[in-house]
């Protein structure tokens, strides 16, 4: 079976698993005050070339978004995001459940543009509006598209001009770095707070929340505790992130997944099947006849979403485990069915 | 070093670790729809002798309390708990953050009594009061005390009479079962919803939320998703709970911790040092001169909290890993210092 | 000066003012348990031809929407409304502040259609979506358009089929009744909960919230109290609504405002100036050159909103106080400027 | 009938009623941007001897508390109040509904002391605690007791030292000023935000929220709008407060109520009936045999609350309308029954 299902179907990378073994025989300090967590934080700070940032580890993407977005918001403040944003349609109203409204911007390719943001901000001038405070984007986006450094920077310039925080959801940041050619240290220059996703890049679970802006660091741990986001055995996440960052494994896995996505895109292109979105990262979407899906599923794992009466949108996800054989096999299936 | 620090300082039990190994080579289905999670749920249902219950796995104790307590509450409904309840003083206002007030009852030993509950309910009769809806207790309590089956049943009878849900926080339920002599299946008879804590009983992380009452099952998964409580790699928890429940390991570990606590209580009794609370489970509290603590720490790990000008309350926690040598060694330290 | 500013610029209707005088010399019971409030409720029940409804009086439109919409919602439930809905863009995130997400439907004329609702509901099928529970519409709409009885009924049929509540924001219901030709008693047949706005129809302040559906009545007073919506001197609202409903004044004022709007629409039509929306009720919008607005303001009060580079959208509102002279004078201004 | 029921049973003071008449014939600007509201704000600023304060008018005491307390709170911040505080037991969980926990302090006389506050603050040092941010007191208290200027100042000193805001609920501030001998301008020196209650002192409804601290002024109007606290016809409140403050009527009515309370206290003292709390302001509580209450009610209006098996606590409230005859008559009833 060729596995293009998603990027969170394996237990974890071998190095992560080995690191956990080393944790076994100790009496570790709780709540993330342990040596593993401390080392993991130092390693990430080293890569980010910043000492003055706060790093916290959170168990999953949605709780990371909740914490990172609503950390220091006043009741009347709101968030701006594109309509296809993960927080808009895939988190069951998680942000609204914190009491904050998410104001929407339409986007064809899943990306926010600085111009669209600038224009949208003009809508919030009256006392009967929310006060915009956080701009949400993700790298990569829900549609698999990717921001360049310049694009993020131009969004951030608008944010700075208007007193807004920029939050980058990095559930797939490892691939995002590979695809955009950005260095991880660049991130600190173009936003206030972001995540480095582990769950979709070799960890059992866990996202690193990186807080650059001082105001967002205030009592962050109390807020995490309040939302059930502090893990008693924080060292389990600390150990995983130590494994991911001590020798660049995090970036390497992202590159592998990205490189496989390039190969997969080329392979699909050769089948002449239409893409739903031009492939840019490890989520590749095609438009495919509903009638043929059953057959395709016999040898391939992938996700399906609605498209039109006769076709569906299929999503193929590559990961650091994807093999050339799987890509070749999928290509053959697409050609033959 | 004798480890009496807490019950969440090791990675996990060996059997749990082995089970994780078996997960490694598969493409697992996400969000808890995998085979491990399904088997774990079936195993727990077998032990609970009930097919009509819903079981969900949550990453930690606070998020489990948030989900279990506020699942199906209306805005005007509130919770009743004793002043020393974990949700009252140790979760940074997590329940209030869901919009619900926690009304307090004073208790000397950390336990709620049916009589105290009955009396307190008389305070909520007016439209300017919250409408009580959930009663929160924990087994074992924050002070290490333990409810008998009859005690919980009498609380539940009051709940049933007044249309309230009874929620039992079972972060330490494995020890609670051993200490109370209750069978796990008894729990379904005396409450509406409860947790079986894994984090403090051999898991890397994870609590099983068991929902007995039908009304509390409604759209529970949507609510979990909204609060960031659905794990993408749900199979990691599923596998752990399969390991804990397939051969009774969960209960066995609880008994070990409890048996060690009996030995520790006896050992301390022999030193004539005063207990802060009569020992009932694996958290044992003594009153100890502040001046001697530093010395005691040289060979022992434990937690300290305020007591009076010259003394502190020390907490010693036994776990399934506690050895007789550690207990003997601690006793000797207490005698000699 | 011709007053087309809005429908809430006068103190109150003369009959309302007189009624207040009668309250002066008594020791009235607080919190809406007084004789005036009781009589007002009975009068409204009489007109609605229903005894089994609950009526509460609330100080303003936004608090009435908050109470009426989120009264008995679970945390994971959400609201559906058109993009131009008052709760979407004019209440500073009031509904989201209760923790509930508002899902949007696009509409050109400000009205929701049964078909659009039916189609939109298909989007909420997964556990990572909110669970739709309340449909929000207003009669009249923000754009001055009006629902017919049949249109509301077809929306309500969809609601009933999907287990949703239909809430009608009736801030301008008096005009809505006149414009739609509906009898007030019809409302109980086609929705679960609605308001009869007083503020914009002759009261100093106050909206009657009418709860038809039994489930929405549960502990409604506690919820109102919690949101600061119970007035100590409830009798002040009770007296006003008694005045409005004892002799049909409420409907009469709505008809007057509506009849004036018909005249105003005809007058503007004669000027050949383009309408922004076809006039349907007492809010009439025209597209007008920005350059001429200053001059128009010399003799007329109205509101202005953005339209395009050279034009603005002007809103003229008629009320029960609007005179034929004002309409004639505005027409002349429009012709002459 | 002698009316000691409460201080919100009349329509309003004659001067307030007259002022409303003057509003009738104008087209007033909405949402509190009118001339009456502007003048009322200027008058209060004059009395407070401060130009740099923000004043907003809110419809009732609970909504004023919601707005004033949670205005600029972060999610993890909490409130400290005495157990008998109005927000604790009489507002149906209104503060918790904003997501913030209220931490309690025990008090025999309903007053918070600086020492008790200082001591209680020591409890909030860990990340699993809320971060205290607002201290709530009321002048006068729920038990009718009164703070001196020095007492409030000493509480405020503790607040300043710990970075807390002090909020004073002034639902009965007019009597509070009379009873404490404080000048209204003193308030700006000893707290960050407070209310001047109108509902219980001659208005139809309305509380003036006075914001001294700059941080609390940020986007206050947006927050008010979000909570349904902005009245469309704001001028109705503006006019009332103009009437109350243009010639010192507000203070005069408070003094009348207070002076009557002194007479009533003396009258009751002469009956040798036991007070529940030593009388300090216009709420006077006595302990009274349950068996005699029915008879007492024949000529007197008052409120009753539980005390012990054979007695109840009766509350007698004086207002600016209380007459010497009513006091004399009540005294005679108490003596004769």
Automatic annotation (TrEMBL), chains A, B, C, D:
The alphabetical list of record keywords is: Pyridoxal phosphate
Q: What is this protein called?
A: L-threonine aldolase
Q: Which PANTHER family match?
A: L-THREONINE ALDOLASE-RELATED, LOW SPECIFICITY L-THREONINE ALDOLASE
Aromatic amino acid beta-eliminating lyase/threonine aldolase domain ranges (all copies): 31-286
Similarity comment: Belongs to the threonine aldolase family.
Query: Which superkingdom heads the taxonomic lineage of this protein's source?
Result: Bacteria
Q: Which GO terms describe its molecular function?
A: lyase activity
Q: Which InterPro entries match?
A: ArAA_b-elim_lyase/Thr_aldolase (IPR001597), PyrdxlP-dep_Trfase (IPR015424), PyrdxlP-dep_Trfase_major (IPR015421), PyrdxlP-dep_Trfase_small (IPR015422)
Q: Name one Pfam family in it.
A: Beta_elim_lyase
What is its cofactor? pyridoxal 5'-phosphate
List GO BP terms, alphabetically. Answer: amino acid metabolic process
